[in-house]
């Protein structure tokens, strides 16, 4: 399951359309993760949802408060833990899961 999480982040599954996600999409993702955790309460799903909530969710909240895409891009470049390089993103996901 760690490999699956790495592949999701390496392919920028959540980050690819980050500028187009609004609050409704964010709520939709949260509801999906809650349903998954309730229906299939396993350690792997809990790890994925924690990685999502701890690392990707704060960026959505910050992006929703920024005024335009250029501000979002400035924030992206200034953010240390949000990486678009595939290898580094996979390593970061692995470290996050090991630290949980």
Automatic annotation (TrEMBL):
The keyword Membrane applies. The chain crosses the membrane at residues 21-41. The keyword Transmembrane helix applies. It comes from the Eukaryota. Keywords: Membrane, Transmembrane, Transmembrane helix. This is Transmembrane protein. The lineage of its organism: Eukaryota, Fungi, Fungi incertae sedis, Microsporidia, Edhazardia.
């Amino acid at each position: 399951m760690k490999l699956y999480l790495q592949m999701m982040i390496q392919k920028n599954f959540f980050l690819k359309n980050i500028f187009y996600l609004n609050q409704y999409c964010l709520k939709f993702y949260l509801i999906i993760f809650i349903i998954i955790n309730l229906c299939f309460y396993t350690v792997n799903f809990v790890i994925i949802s924690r990685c999502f909530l701890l690392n990707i969710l704060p960026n959505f909240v910050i992006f929703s408060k920024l005024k335009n895409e250029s501000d979002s891009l400035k924030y992206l470049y200034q953010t240390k833990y949000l990486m678009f390089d595939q290898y580094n993103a996979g390593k970061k996901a692995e470290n996050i899961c090991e630290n949980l």
